[in-house]
Amino acid sequence: MIIRNSTLKIICILFLLSGISALTYQIIWQRVLFSTFGVDIDSVTIIVSTFMLGLGLGALLGGYLSDKYPTSVIFIFMIFEALIGLFGFFSYLIIINVSDLFILSNMFVVTLANFFIFLIPTILMGATLPLLVTYFYKYSKNIGISIGRLYSFNTLGASIGAFFTTFIALIYFDILQTLQLAALNNFVIVLITYFIFKKSNK
């Protein structure tokens, strides 16, 4: 039980790190859109609406996968974090290329293109909470505590990510380097999760 409790605490820390990357992406992606389309309501709307829709759809996806594959939720979590990191690493190039491709199109087409670009990683982000809640619940047997702990750590990570990105990363690093740091953080989460559960399953 001691090992299990320590594992649950590590999961909370990992989800905090995940929140840091998520807010870093949100801020940087918005900055990239600002540089491409200008600082206006359209750029803000694309990011905010996509994040809200993606997180909601992701929660549904995570809940479905948790019910269908309850013994594989940690493995699925690692896959999703890796995919988020992979997208984040190349996201600057993706956004710029899409912007160049649709630069002569009307605003509706441009908005729609960017909307679908950001929808994929945000769905993956939204799916991580129900996946980890499922694992947590197996050992705590209290759904309220499971959701509360994970959500609080993730929210704390988001606030740290917002502060770090705005007041540290964008001062000492450029946009591309900041995205790479966020992606590296996702990959670190995957590696730590892998080694922790590889060790606990021995």
TrEMBL record:
Protein's UniProt keywords contain Membrane: yes
InterPro entries: MFS_dom (IPR020846), MFS_trans_sf (IPR036259)
Keywords: Membrane, Transmembrane, Transmembrane helix
Signal peptide annotation: none
Residue ranges annotated for the Major facilitator superfamily (MFS) profile domain, each copy included: 7-202
Membrane is among the record's keywords: yes
Residue ranges of the TM segments: 46-66, 73-95, 115-137, 149-173, 179-197
GO MF annotations, alphabetized: transmembrane transporter activity
UniProt-recorded name of the protein: Major facilitator superfamily (MFS) profile domain-containing protein
Species of origin: uncultured Campylobacterales bacterium
